[in-house]
Amino acid sequence: TLQILIELNYQTETCKIAVSLLELKMELRNMKEALQERGEYLGFALQFLEMAILKHKEQKEVPEEEELMKEEAIFNEHLEQRIIKQREKSGNYKFEIQGVTKKGNTYKTKKGKKKQQKIKLWKETLK
């Protein structure tokens, strides 16, 4: 049993567990029961294995939390960029309209002046 514990200990330390955590837990429970029936005490090895399992669980949980935080950050950045783009679009749109109206107004005034000049010429020719 000690060799099995050492092999399992080595596997958990290197995080290359061939057996799933549930199977490992079941194996630990069976070993504890067998050791208690015999009256032997190998608690330090079992505690070390339990600590390794807990560390492995914590390492799995931390990336999930980090992924959630990254997703939230990406979502927030997306919202900020969307708001900025909306502002830019509205600003450009207003600017374009102002430019068009200015051009339109200048065109209308020029057109009006040309009409006035033509009318003057007609009046002069009629007199």
Please explain how this structure is put together.
This protein is mainly alpha-helical. It has a domain at 1-63. Helix content is 90%, strand content 0%. The chain is built from three helices and no strands. The protein has helices spanning 2-13, 21-38, 43-126. Helix 1 runs parallel beside helix 3 and helix 2 (21-38) runs antiparallel to helix 3. The longest helix is centred in the middle third of the chain and has 84 residues, at 43-126. The N and C termini lie far apart (127 Å). Residues 14-19 have low confidence and may be disordered.
Could you write a compact summary of the structure shown?
This protein is an all-alpha fold and 127 residues long. The protein is built from 3 helices and no strands.
Provide the descriptors you would attach to this structure in a database record.
single chain, 127 residues, mainly alpha, 3 helices, rod-shaped
Element layout with pairings:
Blueprint: H1 2-13, H2 21-38, H3 43-126
